[in-house]
Design a protein that fits this description.
Elements (H helix, E strand, L loop, with lengths): L1 E4 L5 E5 L4 H9 L6 H9 L2 E4 L5 H15 L15 E4 L7 E4 L8 E3 L5 H14 L11 H5 L6 E4 L4 E4 L2 H21 L1
Antiparallel strand pairs: 1-2, 1-3, 4-5, 4-6, 7-8
């Protein structure tokens, strides 16, 4: 990864390349048809580099740094979107879902995934193997006790819908979430 920095220490551009020397020198050894690139090259006073272990690490770091610094000459990745995560929500009856927003509420997040397709494939497999809640209802004890609704558990492997009362479902869900978190630790 590399940063073009102006004389005031402001990051102008953040980029990544497999061959940093070749990529960075290309800015200064050829003329540019684009006025934007010509202006960028004139303003560069310093270049800083960051070496990452993998291309995926570089991709994620680039995304994070562009969102943080909002460099003037980066066009892509400034749109507010971010890579998707899989979330196991910290609720009495945990649920699993995809999200692009991390909320610091004690929930567990796995990712980020550079490919949304890959993340949804993993999520679909997890939903087939583990029996987790997918609805967005507020599953607090008072609503269950009032008879407003009762937890519905989906057993996708046997394709059976089973209604379970609070205590038994909660114990099964806690065990499943621990197993699921361990599963992600291996991935």
């Amino acid at each position: 990864m590399y940063h073009h920095i102006d004389k005031d220490g402001v990051i102008l551009y953040i980029g990544k390349a497999k061959n940093l020397k070749k990529r960075v020198s290309s800015y200064f050894h050829k003329s540019h048809d684009s006025a934007r690139l010509s202006m960028l090259v004139r303003k560069v006073a310093d270049i800083q580099t960051i070496v990452t272990e993998t291309e995926f690490d570089a991709l994620l770091l680039e995304n994070t740094l562009i969102k943080k610094h909002q460099p003037r000459y980066n066009i892509n990745l400034k749109d507010g979107k971010t890579y998707p995560w899989v979330c196991i929500k910290k609720e009495r009856y945990p649920r699993i879902f995809a999200t692009r927003r991390r909320i610091e509420d004690g929930s567990e997040y796995f990712g980020p995934y550079a490919s949304g397709k890959m993340m949804y494939t993993v999520l679909d497999i997890i939903k087939e193997v583990f029996t987790l809640r997918t609805c967005q209802l507020t599953m607090d004890q008072s609503a269950i006790e009032s008879g407003k609704y009762e937890p519905v558990w989906s057993f996708t492997l046997s394709a059976v819908w089973l209604r379970v009362r609070g205590v038994r479902m909660r114990a099964a869900t806690s065990l499943t979430c621990r197993e699921l978190a361990n599963c992600f630790a291996v991935i």
